[in-house]
Design the sequence.
């Protein structure tokens, strides 16, 4: 979609959407750290990648959902509307200068933009509505950056599994969710490690599992307790005998040589006191 900056909006006005059929084409909506608890009551939570960065989002693609978010007449049935949905059809530019006039992008053609509704600009500056929308979009982006190391912990703990794709396009941009069995099998030490810096990773994992009741069962990978049974726990630690075999035959001190020789200090013109 061809877009332009807010500075070029001129006399355009925004009419809030009354029909939300367009949401089904968005696939997933990024969410802020402040809204994932509430979002988990209305949408499946998932992680997708934008380049090499994980991004927390809610799934709105109808092929994944047990219940539709949009009625046949376009009415919104999803309850809570995430910040990025409330900001439609606007988005932020890639760079980000802090100036709404250049950071906010809008489509050159949209049924929501026209000669009626709330103005985008007032006296050559962003209207109060646009200032608020800009703050919302900036907040979601800052939150996304903050969550990168948090989501990385979920992948490092090998808790994330991809949802089963229904098409080639879905397979090319998969959604990842927390595997319930793997999370249940996580040791106490593993949980402590995830929560050592903050509790966000554990909170997101629990919210993600809670929200999976909204997914179509056929989209979830076949659950099996086999992997959990093989996973070592504190009560049943891993057997490291093969790895340690032969270590008892090695000398207690592997290298008894000097780090440097005092005989060589003369050549450095240093005195030894």
Sequence:
């Amino acid at each position: 979609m061809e877009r332009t900056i807010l500075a070029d909006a001129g006399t355009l006005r925004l009419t809030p959407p009354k029909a939300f059929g367009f949401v089904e084409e968005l696939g997933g909506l990024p969410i802020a750290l402040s809204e994932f608890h509430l979002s988990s009551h209305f949408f499946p939570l998932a992680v997708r990648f934008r380049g090499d960065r994980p991004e927390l989002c809610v799934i709105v693609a109808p092929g994944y959902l047990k219940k539709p978010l949009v009625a046949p007449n376009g009415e919104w049935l999803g309850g809570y509307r995430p910040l990025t949905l409330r900001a439609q059809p606007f988005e932020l530019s890639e760079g980000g200068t802090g100036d709404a006039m250049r950071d906010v992008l809008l489509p050159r053609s949209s049924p929501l933009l026209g000669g009626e509704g709330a103005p985008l600009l007032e006296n050559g500056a962003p209207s109060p509505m646009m200032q608020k929308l800009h703050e919302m979009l900036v907040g979601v982006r800052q939150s996304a950056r903050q969550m990168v190391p948090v989501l990385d912990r979920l992948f490092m703990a090998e808790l994330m599994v991809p949802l089963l794709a229904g098409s080639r396009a879905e397979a090319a941009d998969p959604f990842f969710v927390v595997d319930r069995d793997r999370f249940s099998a996580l040791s106490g030490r593993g949980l402590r490690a995830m929560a050592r810096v903050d509790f966000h990773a554990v909170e997101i994992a629990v919210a993600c599992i809670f929200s999976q009741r909204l997914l179509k069962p056929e989209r979830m990978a076949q659950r099996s307790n086999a992997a959990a049974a093989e996973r070592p726990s504190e009560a049943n630690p891993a057997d490291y005998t093969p790895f340690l075999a032969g270590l008892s035959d090695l000398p207690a001190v592997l290298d008894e040589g000097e780090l440097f020789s005092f005989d060589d200090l003369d050549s450095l013109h240093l005195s030894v006191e």
In short: The first helix runs from residue 36 to 39. The mean pLDDT is 85. Residues 45 and 58 are 5 Å apart (CA to CA). The radius of gyration is 27 Å.
